[in-house]
Amino acid sequence: MLVYGTSGLCSCPQSKVLSLRIFSSFELGVSTRRQVLKQVDKELAKGDDRAALSLVKDLQGKPGGLRCFGTARQVPQRHYTLAELKLNGIEAALLLSPIDATLGSIERNLQIAAVSGGLAAWNAFKFSPQQILYFSLVLLFLWTWDSVAFNGGVSSLVLDTIGHNFSQKYHNRVIQHEAGHFLVAYLVGILPKGYTLTSLDALRKQGSLNVQAGTAFVDLEFLEEVNAGKVSATMLNRFSCIALAGVATEYLLYGYAEGGLTDINQLDTLLKSLGFTQKKVDSQVRWSLLSTVLILRRHGAARSKVAEAMSIGKSVGTCIDIIESNINDTDI
């Protein structure tokens, strides 16, 4: 009808009215979606995750609503070999054992600067060996205190802050990593409820040095299954894909992953806590990795737009609207 009404082939008044009504209905759907998403943001801000999830599910799958929520296409679940992953352009070793070379380099440079500064101070102020020993003991105490009391939170905060301010590559990588988590979570049917891009931002929002930057999710259904003592395959598959979405995003953009080691370790711990053998863990990880990479390849444009929005602090609702606006019906 829209094509017919806008083609100019029919000039009868009835045709124009019909076309106008269809267009207005579409606009009304988008307007309603954005109004609902604003309410979702309000519920999340209040901490009412259940209400926010209910709003999203009420609009799920409706025309002009949330068409994409929970619609991700995944590969058939079976055991995939490393050779099959390679055939799909995935070198598992390049993303399942991430090493943060950027922060590692920053940490080494800080250590070199500290040693150099100590030697310079020794020569300038003529510190005695005993004073140097005292200074070393104080630094060792502070490092130990941070490791025990804050699980290394102070050190991580310092390194992360320096990384974001002095390495544009690191800053961009973190944003893309979290955008991957956000997009995949939404598409597999798990509602994101917030995100932080820096450890300093996480400290400001949550008041804890033990919380690193990352994306949080409304995991009520998952926790209910865990408390009931049985996690369904569907729920496990969703969270497996979410866990690997960050490293998969980095791999697709840069050819390897640096961040995300914590994500992988948490997934490994979860699977083993459910009684998975190592062979079954490997099978679950490979299936999840293949599914996640294919989702990200299919919706790369949407992920890029979400990353742009996250970089300027847009709300969860706004990021969801961006996803809905940048995925066509044919891609669902």
From TrEMBL:
SUPFAM superfamilies: FtsH protease domain-like. GO terms for molecular function: ATP binding; ATP-dependent peptidase activity; metalloendopeptidase activity. One of its GO terms (biological process) is proteolysis. InterPro entries: Peptidase_M41-like. This is Peptidase_M41 domain-containing protein.
